[in-house]
Amino acid sequence: MARYDAKRIRDLVVKILVCEKMSEEDAQITADALMDANLCGRDSHGFLRIGNYVERLRKGGTKADARPEIVKETAVSALIDGKGAMGIVAAHEAAMVCRKKALENGMAFILVRNGGHYGAGGYWGEQIGQDDLIVMNMTNTEALVVPFGGKDIALGTNPITIYVPANKYPGILYDVATSTIAQGKLFDYKLRNKELPPGCAVDEEGWETTDPEKALYLTSFGGHKGYGLAVMIEAMTACLSGNGIGKEIRSLNVETDKINNVSYCFWAMRTDLFGTEDAFRSNVDHLIEYLHATPAADGKKVYYPGEIEFTNRNENLIRGIDIPSNLEKNLTAIAKEDGIHSPESYFCPVK
Q1: Residue 227 — very low, low, confident or very high, per pLDDT cuts 50/70/90?
Q2: E strands, the chain, where?
Q3: Boundary of a domain, candidates 164, 194, 218
């Protein structure tokens, strides 16, 4: 497995999306979010998503020229209809509205319906929060997870992100699915021909499996704890927006000719509401240093949430990202279908 210059692959992805009738600006917004996922080690939400994104653009489930629309608004809130736009484009629009309103009014809550797949939640936490806002964002997904005590799928992987800015350090970033693994992880394991961790998936008969090719449904993390959190995220997104819940959500990967009617929300709050920004960020630094000072079981280091991803990003900008050969072939094939000249040249090994 070679390591490639992430920015060059990002350039290829922009070309592919423009060939699929997206505007240059929307293509760059989408490619930037995917590249960041790969740089941070969130490969499940990175460039491997392009195959599905392109299929949806070609079949009409995602509208290349659709513009998200604010349908209801106050000084501290907005309901946005994604209108079938690329999910990352709808999320970017919502994220920027959220940041602007929160800075102006102290807090903001932005809700999106018909949103589509919005990529890695942690990316939006950082985009909105930067160094002056606390952020929480959540999304529901199509039904993929067997609820605690159930024997059939009911809810999605329903991830949640919380971002808290710091001063001397990158902020604290908590970004998890409420399932044991995210669906994108399953795709990534398939690409790499790797076995799944035990206990995270079941086959069509309901038996636990570590074979990514046989895995059909996912399990909740922590049993009733992950299930309960997934229910609350469903309520905070779909129930507020009036969009579909659970099995009412159209499949991102199967129903590629239909708008993906997922819902997501962004909440943000200024850090100076209870004191000064500097004081708050210094307190967060103190928390981070407190965690770093805790003796590590492996004799190395106790990491705070998000630290590994931030480290990965800085390192991978220099040493490149690892791309499975199957993904390289898939991206190259899509580019050739779009008439892009010499797509192989965009895969530049980093020495």
Answers
A1: very high
A2: 3-4, 69-74, 77-81, 107-113, 133-139, 145-146, 160-164, 172-176, 201-202, 217-219, 264-270, 321-322
A3: 218
What CATH number does the domain containing 212 carry?
Answer: 3.30.60.50
Closest-CA residue to 159 (of 133, 186, 188, 136): 136
Q: Does the predicted TM-score (pTM) go above 0.90? A: yes
Whether residue 199 is predicted with pLDDT greater than 90 in this model: the reply is: no
Give a yes or no: residue 112 inside a domain: yes
Q: What is the CATH number of the domain that holds 116?
A: 3.30.1370.60
Buried b (16+ CB within 10 A) or exposed e, 55-82: bbbeeebbbbebebeeeeeeebbbbbbb
Domain C-terminal end among 236, 267, 284: 284
Q: pLDDT by residue (tens digit) across 272-291?
A: 999 999 999 999 999 999 99
Same domain assignment for residues 251 and 191: no
Q: Residue 12: which domain range?
A: 1-59+320-351
Nearby residues of 342 by Cβ (< 8 Å), 6 or more positions away? none
Give the pLDDT confidence of 142-153 residue by residue, as tens digits.
Answer: 998 988 877 788
1: pLDDT strictly greater than 70: no
**How confident is the model over 73-111, as pLDDT tens digits?**
999 999 999 999 999 999 999 999 999 999 999 999 999
- 334 and 234: one domain? no
Tokens of 180: 């044991």
Q: How far apart are CA 53 and CA 96, in angstroms?
A: 22
Give the position of tokens 């949430």. Answer: 305
The DSSP symbol for 339 reads: T
Residue the block writes with tokens 């069509």: 204
Q: Is residue 157 within 8 Å of 145, Cβ to Cβ?
A: yes
Q: Is 124 part of any domain?
A: yes
Count of the separate structural domains present in the chain:
3
Least confident span in 92-101, 212-221, 314-323 = 212-221
